[in-house]
Write a structure and sequence with these properties.
Helix content: 10-25%
Radius of gyration: 30 Å
Oligomer: single chain
Distance between the termini: 78 Å
Strand content: 25-35%
Structural class: alpha+beta
Number of strands: 33
Number of helices: 11
Largest sheet: 5 strands, antiparallel
Shape: elongated
């Protein structure tokens, strides 16, 4: 049968049309897809789902009740499209908006709908669990309303606890709401708008954002010609009359960019494998991200701001008020206290009373809420102390015995011991980014490092740094790729590739490098140069100094000598990052060093101060020493 040209063209068009009908247009909106399309998307790698949460509430006389619902749907779609592997669930439109009887908050205005908080939380949790069952690995809660932000974080935390071994994770990125409120307000201020106009609810900011995503929901003509609305009309602290889509688009771009960046960071962190029980690495590019200035955990936030100074030869602890730079307390502890060590859970500070390698070793607990010591616990030779990455065990560094003792982190009952016979003078250490291994320094007998497999609990190997090396403190780089090892005899810091366990570089610093402390922003490393290359040459007023290494360039970018000479040794950085506190080991003082200028204040203390700690410090948990925070 022969087809005419016209018939052939018709047939081709029909086939194209039928193929187009058979393939639904691509959408990131879950409720626009069939169940088979969702199944296929998950199988193809679309394993992130966003649950947008809005609310049905009044927003003044000129903005529709569904403002949050419309806004969060558009923004969630934009965010999903930017991520490239995400879908968007239907908007949760029913949220807590106030009491029913008597009506409170937004419920005083007709059209607002409220639900009990427990019902709201249960809805979110059930929705997330449903999506996890269907194969989604990342469930993201995006809340457009300020009233339930804490609920989202609690739900995410509860889900993460339940999903600890499933591979699924819940996220409630605070950056989304922060960008739509504080971040967007900052943009508007930069353009000359005042806070009185920007407002907090239904003002210039709120209305402009809605005009950018759903202009039909704003009664613009009436808004422009009417008087300034106030609280009785549901507008709080703002004036929406100059709102515009142009201004709103600035906010939309800010919200989308901030949220996408935060989610990519957080999801990448979850992708970084860690040992079981270890808190997730939030930012693989900066494992110190959660120790930034002021980021105090609830466990540490109410602690007395103090600097605790263990004095080796006077066997006491001096307590300094960091605001007045004055000694406000002093108490005796066990023999030869070496370091003050924050516990993994941040609830106790432990003084390691080394007892000069005698059988009288002990640990003295300090309550950071009161600053007072408790009864000492007898343990063998506690020169230093660390904690496993999951917090389940304390690691007492028994230096004289070349041994690590694994103990209960609260009672200090002995669990097991690990000998490191070729690590004479084992003393300081740090952990890999995933918690799989630690590298400890061996101060005596040839200057080695010991790599400890923390999973199999064995010595994985030794690395010799040099015939006369005297390695001291250790710190891992922010990206987890290198370990910085202070060498008191070599006058600098070795760079060690931890995974390969090889030396890859060296940075000269000063005389007698000893303590290493990262800055609160994770960009710099402070090196305390003690002023003597070994203990035998130690003396007061030596050529002590602080070297500042830039992590990015691996170069010394500043040198701060101690005026008149000194012996900076061990310590840490204040919670705000502005002060580096170090003991003056052979000068019987403590130094408070301005991290912006290098200016030094000196405070007299007891005899031979050593591993002091400043408390509280930012971070989620402590791996030990004088505050190896993560």
């Amino acid at each position: 049968m022969r087809l005419t040209a016209r018939s052939l063209l018709f047939s081709i068009l029909a086939l194209v049309a039928s193929a187009a009908l058979a393939q639904a247009p691509r959408s990131v909106l879950l409720d626009e897809l069939t169940w088979t399309e969702v199944r296929d998307a998950v199988r193809a790698g679309t394993t992130t789902v966003i649950i947008p949460i809005g609310g049905t509430e009044q927003s003044g006389p000129d903005v529709a009740l569904g403002k949050h619902n419309a806004r969060v749907k558009v923004l969630a779609r934009r965010i999903a499209e930017s991520l490239g592997d995400a879908l968007v669930a239907p908007v949760v439109a029913y949220v807590p908006e106030g009491n029913l009887a008597p009506p409170s908050s937004h419920m005083r205005f007709p059209g607002t709908i409220t639900v009990p908080r427990a019902a709201f939380v249960a809805t979110l949790e059930s929705a997330a669990r449903s999506l996890e069952i269907h194969g989604f690995r990342n469930v993201v809660f995006l809340g457009d309303h300020g009233g339930y932000q804490r609920d989202l974080m609690r739900v995410a935390a509860r889900l993460n606890a339940a999903w600890a071994h499933s591979g699924a994770r819940a996220f409630a990125p605070p950056e989304y709401y922060a960008a739509s409120s504080r971040g967007y307000a900052a943009i508007l201020r930069a353009r000359g708008y005042s806070d009185e106009e920007i407002g907090t609810h239904a003002g210039l900011a709120d209305t402009s954002l809605l005009l950018a995503v759903a202009p039909e929901m704003v009664r613009l003509e009436r808004l422009r010609g009417g008087p300034k609305p106030g609280p009785t009309e549901g507008v709080y602290g703002g004036d929406p009359r100059r709102a515009s889509a142009e201004l709103g688009r600035l906010g939309v771009e800010q919200i989308v960019a901030s949220t996408v960046a935060a989610l990519r960071r957080d999801m990448a962190a979850q992708a970084a494998p860690t040992v079981p029980g270890m808190p997730p690495v939030v930012d693989p590019a900066n494992l110190y991200s959660e120790t930034g200035a002021g980021r105090l955990s609830p466990a540490a936030r109410k602690a007395l701001p103090r600097v605790y100074v263990p004095d080796l030869r006077s066997s006491d602890v001096y307590v300094i008020d960091p605001t007045s730079y004055k000694v406000v307390d002093r108490f005796m502890v066990g023999m030869g206290p070496q370091h003050v060590v924050p516990a993994w859970d941040l609830k106790t500070l432990w003084v390691t009373n080394n007892a000069s390698r005698s059988p009288e070793g002990s640990l003295t607990p300090i309550d950071p809420m009161t600053g007072k010591p408790g009864p000492a616990i007898a343990v063998d030779d506690p020169y230093n102390m660390y904690f496993t990455a999951d917090g389940r065990e304390a690691i007492v560094v028994a230096e004289a015995f070349a041994r690590l003792d694994f103990r209960d982190p609260h009672t200090m009952a002995l669990h097991s011991r690990l000998q490191a016979p070729e690590c004479k003078g084992i003393n300081h250490g740090d952990f890999s980014i995933d918690g799989r291994y630690a590298i400890f320094t061996c101060e005596f007998g040839g200057g080695r490092l010991a790599k400890i497999d923390m999973v199999k609990r064995r010595v994985a190997g030794y690395l010799r740094l040099g015939e006369n090396a005297m390695p001291q403190d250790v710190r891992v780089s922010p990206d987890g790729k290198l370990f910085y090892v202070a060498d008191m005899a070599a006058g600098g810091v070795h760079l060690i590739d931890g995974d390969r366990f090889e030396k890859v570089g060296f940075i000269a610093t000063g005389v007698g490098p000893h303590g290493l402390y990262p800055s609160r922003d994770g960009t710099k490393l402070y090196v305390a140069n003690r002023g003597s290359p070994n203990m035998h040459e130690a003396r007061p007023h030596g050529p002590g100094s602080i070297s500042v290494i830039d992590f990015a360039t691996r170069k010394v970018v500043a040198d701060w000598p101690i005026p008149g000479g000194g012996s900076p040794d061990m310590g840490n950085v204040s919670a705000d990052g502005k002060t580096l506190w170090l003991s003056g080991r052979f000068d019987d003082v403590v130094y408070a060093i301005d991290t912006a200028t290098g200016a030094v204040k000196s405070i007299p203390v007891g005899k031979e101060p050593h591993g002091l700690t400043v408390w509280p410090q930012p971070g989620r948990y402590s791996l030990g020493h004088t505050g190896n925070m993560r």
